[in-house]
Write a structure and sequence with these properties.
The longest helix is centred in the C-terminal third of the chain and has 36 residues. By secondary structure, this protein is mainly alpha-helical. The radius of gyration is 21 Å and the shape is elongated. It has two domains: 52 residues, no CATH class; 43 residues. Helix content is 51%, strand content 12%. Strands 1-2-3 form a three-stranded antiparallel β-sheet, covered by helices on one side.
Length: 104
């Protein structure tokens, strides 16, 4: 895959993350948009159709942030459980370990 590069002068990039020279992801709704001919017309069309007003764009951005935060919480929970399992396998009581290390 070729490297992604964005034009910092075009405000459209406030709403998209470049993934490659012909693909970008909408930061509001996470939809992947294929750029036609390297231009941004498909990105503009996506914003106009999927997020026609400020309220819908803000709603999509909040929903994306909520999904990302939930994913971080789940990952942290999994890492904590994996850590507890590894400690238990070593004969370490996870509750004692967490209390000793100020993790709770």
């Amino acid at each position: 895959m070729t490297s992604a590069k964005k034009s910092s002068s075009n405000p459209i990039w406030d709403y998209f993350k470049p993934l490659s020279c012909d693909l970008a992801k909408c930061v509001a709704c996470e939809k992947l948009i294929k750029k036609r001919g390297g231009g941004v017309s498909a990105l503009t069309a996506h914003l106009e159709s999927a997020h026609p007003d400020k309220e819908s764009l803000e709603y999509a951005e909040r929903a994306t942030k909520a999904r990302e935060e939930e994913a971080r919480r789940v990952k942290a929970d999994i890492n904590r459980e994996v850590g507890n399992t590894e400690e238990a396998a070593k004969g370490v009581d996870p509750v004692v370990h967490q209390a000793q290390n100020g993790l709770r």
